[in-house]
Amino acid sequence: MKKYDVVIIGGGAGGLTVASGASSLGAKVALIEKERHLGGDCLHVGCVPSKALIQASKDIFTARTKAKELGLDVSGSVDLGKVNERVQQSIRVIQKHDSDERFTSLGVDLYKGTGTFTSANTVRVDDQEIYGKRIVIAAGSRPLVPPIEGLQEAGFWTNENLFEQRELPEKLVVIGGGSIGLELSQALSRLGSKVTIVEKGKKLLSTEDESIQKAALSILEKELTIQLNSEVKKVEITSNGRKRVTIQKGNEQYTEEYDQILLAVGRQPNSKSLNLNVAGVFQDERGFIPTNEKLQTNVPHIFAIGDINGKFAFTHVAGEEGKVVVQNAILGVPKKMSYDHIPWNIYTQPEIFHIGMTEQETRKLGIKFSVYEVPLTDVDRFISDQEADGLIKIITDQKGKILGGHAIGNGSGDWMQAVIFAMKKGSKIGDLSQMIYPYPNHAAAIQRTADLYWRSKLFSGTLPKLTKKYISWFR
User: Fold this and answer.
1) Side-chain half-sphere exposure of 17, counting CA atoms within 13 A
2) How far, in Å, CA of 345 to CA of 179, rounded?
3) Alpha-carbon distance 409 to 349, whole Å?
């Protein structure tokens, strides 16, 4: 039996971070991956292909809408097969960075197959059993399939098979209005499908700030039919091969026929095949593996990172967790994983950015706070781009310390990075006003918002007396 300093189950973002980091420090590393290629869901059926699809749909949408505004006529239908060929090309290019050869050249032993615990220190892959002084579970997650009557028989798409499709459905129903559902719905709508989203919740994007929720619904309803407080109860196949879907909205039910169904109701952890009981590893009722601040499970030498620990299902979080595990498991230097300043984006157009607390969260906690909010119609660059739908909102405590930053706007995931840095360094909102922003750029939205802080302090009398000329400048 081969023995390793660390055995990693799962070759996605978190697992690859641990593998490269541990091997670079001289550890003997085994990496187990059940799929043909390394890279995980993010590379093959998640982040990368979805963003490639979104960009293709944006290209089509821009060509149709902007060309018409400028007096040009654009016509014709989209070939989904051609679009997905472009998607696969993006995957192939990035795959080179996550190739088997790269990791074997680092000294990592690769095992292709499903890893299953045989004890707290041993894992079986097919007919081989290996020993790990430390074991890292980074097995990821998969789409959740709800128990809807007739759904399995009717067939459906998920993110796992969408990027292989070649025929665009004329009418599509998307079950689930979270980030994945919204991104893919808008993309497919822009490619030419007539899309209806069925969302069980009473609000769209319930984890986002209320201002963002309202703005997102108003903007996205221009392209999509969004049914809130609704649930699919039954699916039937019609005589012509379409899917008859029964939807309950409030106390009423109605049926509608669609060409295809896309599921986007959430994720479930890939923990069932791990045989965790043999290793003594606890999992909750949903199959997620709880961890402490050092990302240890209840068995101290076994760690869990990425989607499977149920904290934040983001690639960038899995990567950061991987770095923490390398420090704890390989270097033996205690390191805690902090989730205080985790940002995320939703890649609709316009994009949605989130970091820190929402206004409703601060209100619920009884924190005294201030809100500084600016519509993008007040920012010159967005006006000149003809992309002024959206807003920016920064929430602070009474001393100006930033508690949360939120935005919906074209490219907000990029131009809001300064807010992430400010929160990480403990800077105040006033510091963001003191930066110089090249004119005209999108990040000037941050400056306009931060300037509101100084105006509020100036006119509330909390700043020293200033000259009339300086006061008029703030007005």
Assistant:
1) 22
2) 9
3) 8
pLDDT per residue over 254-290, tens digit each?
999 999 999 999 999 999 999 999 999 999 999 999 9
Q: Tokens representing 437?
A: 């922003």
d(CA 381, CA 82): 34
Residue 17: which region, alpha, beta or left (left: phi > 0; alpha: psi -120 to 50)? alpha
Q: Where are the alpha helices (DSSP H) in 112-236?
A: 151-154, 179-191, 210-220
Concatenate the DSSP letters of all residues of 27-89 into one string: --EEEEESSSSSSHHHHHTSHHHHHHHHHHHHHHHHHHHHHHHTT--------HHHHHHHHHH
Q: In the prediction, which pLDDT does 461 show?
A: 60
Q: What is the pTM of this model?
A: 0.93
Residue 361's contacts (CB-CB under 8 Å, 6 or more residues apart) are 404
Are 348 and 216 contacting, i.e. CB atoms less than 8 angstroms apart? yes
Length of the chain: 475
Q: What is the pLDDT of residues 403-456, one digit of tens each?
A: 999 999 999 999 999 999 999 999 999 999 999 999 999 999 999 999 999 888
Q: What distance lies between CA 82 and its chain's CA centroid? A: 26
Give buried/exposed letters for 421-457 (b at 16+ CB in 10 A, else e).
ebbeeebbbebbbeeebeeeebbbbbbbbbbbbbeee
Q: What are phi and psi of 288, to 5 degrees?
A: -75, 155
> Percent of the chain having pLDDT more than 90?
91
Q: Which secondary structure element, helix H or strand E, spans residue 233, and what is its range?
A: strand 230-237
Tally Cβ neighbours within 10 Å of residue 79: 13
Of 330, 334, 336, 331, the closest CA to residue 133 belongs to 330
Which ranges constitute the DSSP H helices of 131-270? 151-154, 179-191, 210-220
Angle of helix 13-24 versus helix 315-325 axis, rounded to 10: 30
CB atoms within 10 A of CB 71: 6
Question: What is the rounded radius of gyration, in angstroms, for the C-alpha atoms of the chain?
Answer: 25
Side chain identity at residue 104, one-letter code: T
Within 10 angstroms of residue 187's Cβ, the number of other Cβ atoms is 27
Please state, in angstroms and rounded to a whole number, the distance separating the CA atoms of residues 433 and 162.
44
How far apart are the C-alpha atoms of 78 and 192, rounded to whole Å?
A: 7
d(CA 195, CA 258): 9
- 288-291: which pairs have CB atoms within 8 A and are 24 or more residues apart? 289/137
SS3 content of the chain, % helix, strand, coil (to 5): 40, 25, 35
- Helix (H), strand (E) at residue 204: none
Q: Which amino acid is at 273?
A: S
